[in-house]
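The material for today's practical consists of a large collection of protein records. A record pairs a protein's sequence with a compact description of its fold. Instead of coordinates, the fold is spelled out as a row of discrete tokens. We will come back to this pairing of sequence and fold again and again. Here is such a record, shown just as it appears in the course material.
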Amino acid sequence: MKDLLRQRKEQLQAARAAAKKRRDLLKAEILSAAKEVAREERIATRLEAERLKAEAKTARTYVREDARAAAKFERSQPTRPASKRKALAKEKRKLVSYADFLRMRG
């Protein structure tokens, strides 16, 4: 009977030790997986930050190019459109001076 109890006690201790070993292995596996997830998240965060930085740089470039194009367009526009009256007066002067020119030739 004592032998049986001692044997049973040893079996329980062995079972406890095996269960503890399994728990420790599972804990290590879980920690390893958690570290891997954290590493992947850091990589994803870094890549997202790089993508946003590149996007911002592209946007700044487009804004600069748009500003240059707008400035170029503004420079190409007449500073102040001549009024119709002045335009007609210029045209009249040209016609008169052309008539004078013809009279001088003739």
About this structure: The chain has a mean pLDDT of 86. The first helix runs from residue 2 to 76.
